[in-house]
Write a structure and sequence with these properties.
CATH class of the largest domain: Alpha Beta
Strand content: 15-25%
Strand order of the largest sheet: 6-7-8-12-13-14-15-16
Structural class: alpha/beta
Oligomer: single chain
Largest sheet: 8 strands, mixed, barrel
CATH topology of the largest domain: TIM Barrel
Bound molecules: 2-phosphoglycolic acid, zinc ion
């Protein structure tokens, strides 16, 4: 049982310098517990509503003060009742999630447990232990930077085995930087919202070619992944605008297949089509050339994910708790995906804070993978929590 004595609502800032909301909960022993989820820029249309500080209904949230809850479900039942909207627009999806997380932290403290242990117990998650794959975004494009790449994220993928994996990633990132500096004769490389390199390239394939050069030169055992975030280069007239050309989904499929022919280590492709282009997803899926990952397509929403799973469009799913706002719904979506043997990838947002809660979500459900950027600058708190929670083995 945790009693919420008081709630603090604070203005904080994410890695883009944009305001985000941090929520503090004070328990019956006067301990404070805080949470501060990051924020997205290339969002799916069906994500819950996120509220800025000045839009918050403080009176509504203060109704929780003085109340005691015996579990996370108990608290979220109250939040759902207070909100009463289909998109969490009264409380705000970001506030809903931060309240749940801060409460979960208070609850974990009262029980002498880690956050992930509370989540695992609360949502009855009993999956075998597993070391996750790391998806690390080394070249940035799309909505995350003002360069000419249509594709948003160029990632390397490797299995986490301990701090040496983080070291390996840093080394690769530095070698790729050296390679690009030399290739383009520039001393300082621009970087994007997720701290990947963000210069202009002659086309969207070239970053993969350069990543492969560096991988082969130093014998890294990596796979590659793209997040196309295709909502960004889809236009309402029904075409994709890709490298100044108008393409339909069949033509875009051919582009992706040609990439695979040139870069065999390209095994994963996220949001290759806009979120309503089911036909595009279907066409690429039948080729069986990639593991297709849904993000804007599924937005961590259990109902939407159920529909998409019935259509058999994806092999993996991105999980971002703040797309849906509730921890219970986040884990419902995870369970649905696990039942279908999908690759479950727990992801950060492009605007991040120091809060590493997503590592606990991953550990609670023994996720297949983590998408947490490069292990430097604003992204480092996730890697350091990963090392703490998953150990040094
Ligand atoms: P976002 O994008 O955090 O800016 O929404 C990340 C992604 O598309 O995976
Ligand atoms: Zn994405």
């Amino acid at each position: 049982m945790v009693k919420i004595k008081k709630i603090k609502i604070l203005r904080n800032f994410d890695s883009r310098g944009q305001e985000v909301v941090k929520i503090g909960i004070c328990d019956q022993n006067d301990h404070w517990f805080f949470s501060c989820p990051g924020s997205g820029k290339s969002k799916g249309k069906k994500e819950v509503i996120s509220k800025d500080f000045q839009e918050i209904d403080f009176d509504l949230i203060s109704k929780l003060e003085g109340k005691a809850f015996s579990s996370l479900n108990d608290l979220e039942n109250e939040l759902f009742a207070l909100d009463g909207s289909p998109d969490k627009s009264k409380i705000g999806g970001n506030i809903f999630l931060a309240l749940s997380l801060s409460f979960a932290r208070a609850f974990a403290w009262s029980e002498g447990l880690e956050l992930w242990e509370v989540l695992k117990h609360e949502y009855k998650l009993d999956f075998p232990q597993k070391l996750p794959l790391i998806f690390s975004n080394v070249i940035n494009g799309g909505a995350h930077v003002e360069n000419n790449l249509d594709i948003q994220e160029y990632m390397v993928v490797l299995k986490y085995k301990g701090p040496e994996t983080v070291r390996e990633l840093v080394n690769f990132y530095r070698s790729l930087g050296d390679f690009l500096r030399e290739k383009y004769s520039i001393r300082i490389l621009p970087i994007g919202d997720e701290s990947g390199y963000a210069l202009d390239f002659e086309n969207n394939l070239l970053p993969l070619v350069y990543m492969k050069n560096v991988k082969d030169k130093f014998s890294y055992d990596f796979e590659f992944a793209l997040d196309c975030a295709a909502n960004y280069f889809y236009h309402r007239d029904g075409h994709y605008f890709f490298e100044t050309q108008k393409l339909n989904s069949l033509e875009l499929t051919q582009v992706y297949l040609s990439y695979k022919e040139k870069i065999p280590e390209l095994n994963f492709i996220e949001d290759p089509f806009q979120e309503e282009d089911f036909e595009g997803f279907r066409e690429l899926k039948v080729t069986q050339k990639f593991k297709i990952i849904g993000d804007d397509l599924t937005v961590t929403n259990p109902q939407i994910t159920k529909d998409i799973l019935e259509k058999n469009l994806i092999d993996g799913i991105i999980i971002k708790a703040n797309q849906v706002g509730s921890l219970r719904e986040t884990f419902e979506t995870i369970k649905l995906a696990k039942e279908k043997n999908l690759l479950v990838i727990i992801s950060h947002r492009s605007g991040e804070t120091e809060d590493p809660f997503l590592i606990h979500i991953a550990k609670a459900c023994e996720a297949d993978a983590l998408k947490i950027g490069v292990p430097i600058k604003e992204r480092v708190s996730k890697f350091n929590e990963l090392v703490r929670i998953y150990g040094e083995s």
